[in-house]
Amino acid sequence: MAAGDVALKLLSHVYWHRKAEFMYGEDTYPCWTLFAVEEGRFFYGINEQKGEAGFGDLVLCPPHVGFQRRTLEPLSFHFLQFVWQSEPNGEQASRWSGKLVIKDRERLASDYLYLKQLPGWDEESTLHKQHMLSDMLRLIQIERERKDEFTSESDDLMEKARQYLTDHAYGSLSMLDLAESLGLTPVQLTRRFRRAFAQTPSDFLNEIRLTRVRHLLEGSTLTLDAIATKCGFENGFYLSRVFTQKIGVAPSVYRSMYRV
């Protein structure tokens, strides 16, 4: 398997929405199995690798290896199983096993949206889903190659910033306080975060918040003000403005698309 080769065949895809807990705390699969988190967090263990995963993280388990998992909060995720056209082995296989982080959250969110919208398992839909999966894995490859351009100190510091934003996304959050806690000015934080993750801290934060907003618009009857409170926005008016700008349609129009 060449370093840049992510050719694969998709075997199955299931989307789980706000799953409270896994049926089994550990399981094994006969093929490569990917947990792609859209919302929420869960604990995972694969061989010696253990940790937590949330939005932006893909957790990939090789065939016939025990996959430990436990939800830490209601979990929305894509469950995908596939085989490589050229099976990785040795060091290559270990590089694909465990948590894989995608920095381009906007591209990832788009892939997730297409995966959810594609109907059934007809030939055309399956090929499209396979393309979305390949796109996510290719992003991993591209970002790995770019990572060598940055110092480990910069990566570590910005990873701390990313983790803080993820953990505090739905509450009151000050970018000034975050920058000062890292020993940076707000301008330095924005520049270094953009260099590391190809987006500003504010854009990253909005993506996390808007993911939850979309779920609440799809699956609840909460008012826009109530949704704003749950997702870290000041009020429904401001949420509506951000949502329309980022998603391309007003929240009311988006909600109507999911009414049956």
Automatic annotation (TrEMBL):
Q: Which PROSITE patterns match?
A: HTH_ARAC_FAMILY_1, HTH_ARAC_FAMILY_2
> Could you tell me which InterPro entries the record lists for this protein?
Homeodomain-like_sf (IPR009057), HTH-like (IPR037923), HTH_AraC (IPR018060), HTH_AraC-typ_CS (IPR018062)
Query: Which residue ranges does the record assign to the HTH araC/xylS-type domain?
Result: 159-257
The record ties this protein, via Pfam families, to: HTH_18
Keyword terms, alphabetized: DNA-binding, Transcription, Transcription regulation
| Parts forming coiled coils | none
Which top-level group of life is the source organism from? Bacteria
Task: Write the protein's name.
Answer: AraC-like DNA-binding protein
